[in-house]
Amino acid sequence: RRQRQMCIRDSRYPDAHYNLAETLFALGEIEDARDHWRAYLDLDPTSSWAATVRTRLDTTEEVVDEGREPS
Q1: How far apart are CA 65 and CA 46, in angstroms?
Q2: pLDDT band, residue 26 (cuts 50/70/90)
Q3: Does the pTM exceed 0.90?
Q4: Are 25 and 52 spatial neighbours (Cβ–Cβ below 8 Å)?
Q5: In whole angstroms, what is the distance from residue 19 CA to residue 69 CA?
Q6: What is the mean pLDDT of the chain?
Q7: Phi-psi region for residue 70, left (φ > 0), alpha (ψ -120 to 50) or beta?
Q8: Are 57 and 45 in contact (CB under 8 A)?
Q9: Which residues, 6 or more positions from 3, have their beta carbon under 8 angstroms from its beta carbon?
């Protein structure tokens, strides 16, 4: 799994970052998910999913800051 993450970190495909972020989020790996959501926004900041990604980042920032599990 770690090898897969390393490969995608260099990816220029925003959808790959988005999908990996969603998977990592579901697995509870919030900080890694946030890294990939940010990469997604760097690559495609005006996409139809950008607002959703920004909401995810805002919501998970609170989770990370408080050290609690996501709801």
Answers
A1: 27
A2: very high
A3: no
A4: no
A5: 20
A6: 84
A7: beta
A8: no
A9: none
- Does the pLDDT value for residue 12 go beyond 90? no
Q: Are 17 and 4 in contact (CB under 8 A)?
A: no
- Alpha carbons within 13 angstroms on the beta-carbon side of residue 59 total 13
Cβ atoms of residues 50 and 41 within 8 Å:
yes
Q: How far apart are CA 18 and CA 21, in angstroms?
A: 5
pLDDT tens, position by position, 30-60: 999 999 999 999 999 999 999 999 999 999 9
Burial class (CB within 10 angstroms; exposed 0-12, middle 13-18, buried 19+) of 23: middle
